[in-house]
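Cross-posting from the modeling subforum.

Setting up a comparison between two proteins and wanted a second pair of eyes on the formatting. Protein 1 (sequence, then structure tokens):
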Amino acid sequence: MLLRFSRICTSLLLLLFSANILANPIEASDNSKEFDVNEMIMHHIKDSHEFHIMDINGHAVSFPLPIILWTENGLVTFLSSEFDHDDSGKVIVKKKKQAFVKYHEKIYYAEQTGYLGKYVIYDDNGFVLNKKPLDLSITKMVFSMFISMVLLVLIFVATARTYSQSRNGEPTGLGKFTEPLVLFIKDEVALPMIGEKNYQKYMPFLLTLFFFIWINNVMGLIPFFPFSANLSGNIAFTFVLAVITFIITTLVANKDYWKHIFWMPGLPVPMKLFLAPIEFLGIFIKPISLMIRLFANISAGHIIILSLISLIFIFKSILLAPVSLFFSVFISLIEVLVVAIQAYIFTILSAMYIGSAIEEHEH
């Protein structure tokens, strides 16, 4: 049974990767220009104002998203499709007597440069000089995050209903899947890290944190899920999660926590003066490590898989395809574990930081 399941998973992953290659014929088979690995990888992992699905006969097929700009003349809204899938700064959109141009997924006020079809100006170092409006657009990562939030609510509402509809108090359906995970967070994360006295207060936060990160990680793994994005591989996303943990830890910290940071009991005064600045920096290093760990691990997995697929086009040999796909599938199977492990690590470290802040000591 396990062998059969493994073969089915491998076949599905191979199909997904093959479809992902065929869906981008311009990138994969355009011999008129050199294949740029960096450009292809960054195109897949960075944020954008639309969901690029595939190319058909050189024409991009995409799902447009709303662009919301606060400009000098007030609020401006339109769909990203008005830029005609252009990201090179050659297409402008005129709204409220203003012109806008999209360049490398950033929106600027258009400037006439004197060159035909160019609306972006640079300084001598290559930095864009165009002014930017305040961009409040719904990008693909924001849209993906909204979907994960809806999924999170639906999962827990459906789980709660299985308990309310159960006659003997045991969950049914979806509840049978979520209950072991909830108990795992309770028994293996909240109780040992926070303590029996206070763990219930922080269970909603820890459960939300774990499932929210895990759902977004899983959505980012599926190559052809229409609205998936590398959300956990965006450092702004991991930064906000780390800041939330930092704020909670700081607000609930008791006097023992601060005493052990600034004036550790039981140590000579010179050693206290030496360690106090280090411990103070540790307050900020902890959330920074949370932020970087999740961002780096999720991004690294995507980059490795895309790099392995790129080997086919770098060496321009179809003979390399089986080897490249084999290792891509192998890394993908590892990624299935990594996305859950990283959600668990972020959650358990957050619980550990909160637990250390509220722990009471006897001196």
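Protein 2 (same layout):
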Amino acid sequence: MTNTLRLCYVAYSPLNLESANSIQTFNTLRELSKQLGENVTTIVPRFGKKAPPPFPARQLARIPINKLVRLYKTARWSYIERAVYAQRAQRIIASVKPDLIYTRDLVCAYRFVRANLPVVYEVHDLESQHPGQNKSARLIETLKHMDEATLTKSRGIASLTETFRQEIIARGWQPAARVFVIPDAYDDAIYFPREKTKMRAKLNLPREAKIVAYAGLTFKYRGLDVLLRAFKQWNDASARLVLVGGRSFEVQELQELAREMGLAEQVIFVKRQTARPEQGEGSNGIADYLAAADVLVIPDTVTDATASPLKMFEYMAMARPIVCVDRASLREILGDAALYFPRGDVNAFAEQLERAAQHDAQDLGERARERVREFTYAKRAEKIVRAAETICGM
């Protein structure tokens, strides 16, 4: 690995492991630090009273401008807060003079390219199309400009999927040589196969049931209502559906839907589990629930061409059959190691659940486990470094 590349990674998400963004950033930075040592500078939000991460980091306080939403409700406060953070990060960048800046935050990337700084932008979606916030028509137009300006003026682009890479090239935003596919990953110290019966005993789950599991920090936009309807359509009295995570209001909504559908006794809701390894064990609560399942499901994704959900890689590492929504971006990784259904097709989803629960479907899990070996965070960090070296050599 190179010992001359000087990389600066700018993160906006706090490293508290309470979101997919945070988990991915934390683990990517950990591995980049191992590979680049003092040649990587990380700029991250201030930790507060939380334990610092296991790598050197420059802490930068986030000015809580977004709290003004309590006085005047607009999504603009969030973008203003991110812009202020990016402006303050530039002072640190000026002092370390890196060869490249790497970030997955659009506002940071946009501010940096406007300052003519060398940026690699890891794009997770077009900000103007992301459904996470209610945006005015005027704000959407602003974000469209920011999306295009950032994608065209960055020194390089890291796309999570080949599907979106091809879209970037087709739109003329970047030449092919400057667009790199760097998918998401999984932590192989946490996610690995373990004995199903033992996990069910540990978690007090029914030993003989056919267990379908879904895990997510949030449920919004992820098709959990479709999952409930497909589970109902499957109509197997011996089956149990385990839903791990979700915010309280999301869980309440799904509990009410499960009651209305007569599934209250078959659906098990589990509170959010820690994303950190348990003390003295190579696992955590999420991984234990996945290991206890017969089938793991991805009922939908928030994005389409850019979809590269962490749970897909974590599921694959557990060597369990996977049933997921049919997306070209997911097929890139899963290939023939999963069962697919058309988006929103409850009948097809139910049929695939039944197929996946059969004993002869278990080889799907082993196939997924073999495929996922190339998607650890260590290998992800290697891909980032190789992309950065390539860009610097152009």
